[in-house]
What we know:
It contains 16 helices and 15 strands. The chain is α/β, with parallel strands linked by helices and 392 residues long. It has two domains: 2-170 and 351-391, Rossmann fold, CATH 3.40.50; 173-347, 3-Layer(aba) Sandwich (Rossmann fold). Strands 1, 2, 3, 4, 5, 6, 7, 8 and 9 form a nine-stranded mixed beta sheet that branches. A six-stranded parallel beta sheet has the order 12-11-10-13-14-15, sandwiched between helices. Strand 11 (222-226), helix 9 (232-241) and strand 12 form a beta-alpha-beta unit. Helix 2 crosses helix 3 (102-109), helix 8 (204-216) packs across helix 13 and helix 11 packs across helix 14 (332-347). The radius of gyration is 22 Å and the shape is elongated.
Amino acid sequence: MKIGLVTPYVYPLPGGVNEHVRFLYENLRLRGHDVRILSSSHGLQRSSEGDVIRIGKGFSMPSNGSVGTITFSPRYLSQVRTVLDREKFDLLHFHEPFVPFLSPIVLRQSQSVNVATFHAYGGFSPAYELGKRTLGSYAERLHGRIAVSAAASHFVDRFFPGDYKVIPNGVDVGRFQRAVPIARWQDGTPNVLFVGRLEDRKGLPHLLKAFRLMRKSGVECRLLVVGSGPQEREDRRYVLTRGLHNVEFLGRVTDSEKSQLFRTADVFVSPATGRESFGIVLLEAMAAGTPIVCSDIHGYKGVVQRGRQALLVPPGDSKALAAAIAELVADADLRATMGAAGLVRAEQFSWEQVTAKVEDYYGFVIRRLAAQGQLPIGFNAEIPQPTHATQR
């Protein structure tokens, strides 16, 4: 099929949705499909780069406790029509389809089969509350709906009721298994790793407090902090004013360096306070064979199994966080057991398996439309036959 993956965020800037789009693009191509990515520009990117088609400009703005992007162009309608007329997609796959403005406009103009993946999770959302009043007709244009987790499905269903197929995020298992630990930190001191944007919902201040409690109680370890964000100055100030040693802020790193850091870590910690729909970092830790301590929040429960690959603690509880980390730091056998369980679990989330599930769902949606005589005029491919997995 000719497939367009639509991301409202500037591709390929870092972010969970864009990483999802990237691996889905690569693996759909490996499965024989002709795939394009529809995105916007942010700065000086060219309008077209290989299979990446850019429409409009992206602007950063606060969103769901983080920083998101909205896209805009005064010529959106004509630009979108030109692209869709030229590319003639059989299927368009929207990621966060209601983030303004690129995705809703492409959805409105689409003459293709429309499938959407919903990635977000949160509490009350003013944007979605407003959106359910204004975007109902757009939601009706979706022929299929995917959510990356049960938490994400429950969240979006409150605003746009419908049938959601849960298909998780994936992980490039091989990349993490091939990574080599960094010799600099292989000196006998246990390494505790944090990876995430330095913002309130990722919970680094709680980990810093936990690290301080561990140091006071005589637990020897090193804390490696990967990421940047609006809280970085405050986090660094906390470390400095408390005289915490063995805390290293590494900033943003390359994918290759991140893989190595996960392999270097003895314990990975994700102290997020909530609003996590899934937890890709947990997948990455498991793919590296690294045991996990993480918050007991909805988005994480579908990724790790309590006591198998991770110790779960109440969000925001620094004492419980310190106790769980100290337990793993002190018990090499427990780390090895949980790391091995993580490797097995990660294989279930390989991009090969996730892409096969997405492809099966495409086929299900297309066959359903064909049976109802409702295939859009833009669909010109052969109707996919059910696979054994679909039949099961």
